[in-house]
Each structure stands twice: as C-alpha cells, then as structure tokens.
Write a structure and sequence with these properties.
13 helices, 2 domains, Rossmann fold, alpha/beta, 4-stranded parallel beta sheet, binds norvaline, globular, binds phosphoric acid mono(formamide)ester
Length: 303
C-alpha cells in the first residue's frame, strides 16, 4: 500500500483495492478496540467547510476527531461563503496554514478539487454533487460486516444515478461487487463514470425496472429522489420516480440473505417504506454508525 499520509480523499477511484481494504480493516479494528486509538491524532485539527446541511457527516467527523485525540472546527455555509466572499483558492491557502486537514461538503465537485489543489494539507470530500466517498467507505464496511467478504455479491441500487450511486460504482469496481442500477429513464449515472468503472472491471447492468434489478440481489440500496440542490425539481422528480420505491414487494424477489441500505436522510414512505427501514433486513442504522468508524480510519491514515 502507498503511504496514505498527506493524501487527499476525494474519490474511491484514487485508491487501489488493496488500499480500500486496508481502510476497511483498520475501521473494523477501530470499532472493536476504540480506546486503543485515543491518541492517534493527538493535537491535530480538522477544519470542516459546509455549503450544505448535514447530520451524519458533521457529527461523525467531529466526534471522530475528538475520539482520536484531535479537534474539529465546524464552518457553516454562511461563514466563509466559499467562492463568493473569497476565492476557493484563497480559502484553501489560508485554512491549510491553520489546520492539519480540511473536510469539505460542497455543491460543485470542482470546488473540492480546487481546495485540494491549493491546500498543503489533505482534503477530504464530505460530499459533492458528483461523489460521496466517505459514505461509500461506511457502506462497504457495513456490507463486509454483514457478509464477511465481497465475493459473489450483487448490489442493486434503486433510484437516482447520483453522487451516492457513483461512489458505490467506484467501490464495486475495486472490490469485485456486481452492480445493477434500476433508475427511471433520464436518471442514469454519469456516462463517464459508467465508462471508467466498467473499464476498471465493474460488472454493471443498468435497467429501468426495479423488479428486474432486485431479483436475487444481496444488497438493495436506495437514496433520496431529490438531492440537496435539486429542490426546485422536486415535484417533477417525485412524479418520475414513482414505481421506484423500496418496499416489501421488492424485497420478496431479492435474495433470502438480502440487506437494505440507505445513506440517510430518508423520506419515509417516499423512496423507502417505514416497514422496510425498521425491518429485520435493514442495515441502515449500522451504516450511519459506520460513518464514524470508516472516517476515523481515513483521518488516521491521511492526516
Ligand atoms: N449520509 C449523509 O451524508 O448524511 P448527512 O447529509 O446528514 O451528513
Ligand atoms: N444524494 C444525497 C445524499 C445525501 C447524504 C444528496 O446529495 O443530497
């Protein structure tokens, strides 16, 4: 494994399968032996820039840093007004003089790339319109815990071909997970990412019928139909995603050992029903917890 110290964490595509496995194994150990890591980042500081709201990302990074002996600073959307009050470049150059790392949740993926370009310290992507790599690490950690390995697994993603879907694709390509995406016409994932991940060996099918997607799948994953920044299209999206709800009917045709995942926040009884979210196949709240453990591994290895 290459030395990860000082590297940005912007996309799973930048890491090899071996490196991703090393993060996951460290996260498992950190979860089991929490107290052993309390000085791992002693005295280190993480600056966290948010252009969008957050529960999981903000709290898991903040608590994660403090569990590792460090400190995290939350910077709200209004505070620095990235790119408006000050250029992204200047923000990166100033923050990296104070902090040991920057975590950023942004609209445009170019902004997180620009931060990384001008920051001397590692930049972690806490979600952009294109990708959500920290979520992906928590998701694959959850899958690994449930199934023991990734061999022969089929993941069906139902819904919008968005940032979470793109990240799952990169991860599936690296980890040898088969993927089937069931989305309405016009909501397919980025053609460029389809091209890149299939070239990287991803076994991928894209269909427009969730019943075809779910058949014999080991993991059924969904996300909101209206991502942050798309609120203006809400009515149209709710109409066009009708029929793509994850409900008990869909689970009936999945594999017997199938688990259900959602990155949250969820709109209960819209993209996923209450009974499925709270049912015995749901791994959703393990996933939320695993944000903490997966990100602690990223922080410890990169800062
Ligand atoms: N899943 C996730 O990133 O949640 P938040 O938007 O609450 O951070
Ligand atoms: N696709 C969602 C994920 C939220 C964690 C969004 O970007 O809003």
């Amino acid at each position: 494994m290459n030395d990860t110290k000082g590297r940005d964490f912007l996309s799973l595509k930048d890491y090899s399968s071996k490196e991703i496995m090393a993060y996951l194994n460290l996260a498992i150990d950190m979860k089991r032996n929490r107290a052993d890591y309390r000085n791992a980042l002693l005295g280190k500081n993480l600056a966290m820039i948010f252009q969008k709201p957050s529960l999981r990302t903000r709290v898991s990074f903040q608590i994660g840093m403090s569990e590792l002996g460090g400190h995290a600073l939350y910077i709200s959307p209004n505070e620095i007004q990235l790119g408006k009050r000050e250029s992204v470049k200047d923000v990166a150059m100033v923050l990296s003089r104070y902090a040991d790392g920057i975590m950023a949740r942004v609209f445009s993926h170019d902004d997180v790339l620009e931060l990384a370009k001008y920051s001397d310290k590692p930049v972690i992507n806490g979600l952009s319109d294109l990708l959500h790599p920290c979520q992906g690490m928590a998701d694959y950690l959850t899958i690994l815990e449930r199934f023991g390995d990734f061999d022969g697994l089929r993941l069906c993603y139902v819904g919008d071909g968005n940032n979470v879907c793109h990240t799952l694709m990169y991860g599936a390509a690296k980890l040898g997970v088969e993927m089937i995406i069931a989305c309405p016409k016009g909501y397919e994932p980025s053609a460029e990412i389809v091209e890149e991940t299939t070239r990287d060996g991803l076994d991928l099918r894209i269909v427009n019928d969730p019943l075809i997607g779910a058949r014999d799948s080991n993991v059924i994953y969904t996300d909101t139909w209206v991502s942050m920044g798309q609120e203006g299209d809400e009515e149209k999206r709710l109409r066009e995603f009708k029929g793509f709800q994850v409900n008990s009917g869909l689970l009936d045709i999945a594999s017997d050992d199938c688990i259900v995942m959602h990155c949250l926040p969820a709109h209960r009884n819209v993209e996923i029903t209450d009974d499925v979210m709270d049912g015995k196949r749901s791994a959703i709240f393990d996933q939320a917890e695993n944000r903490l453990h997966a990100q602690k591994a990223i922080l410890a290895l990169n800062l």
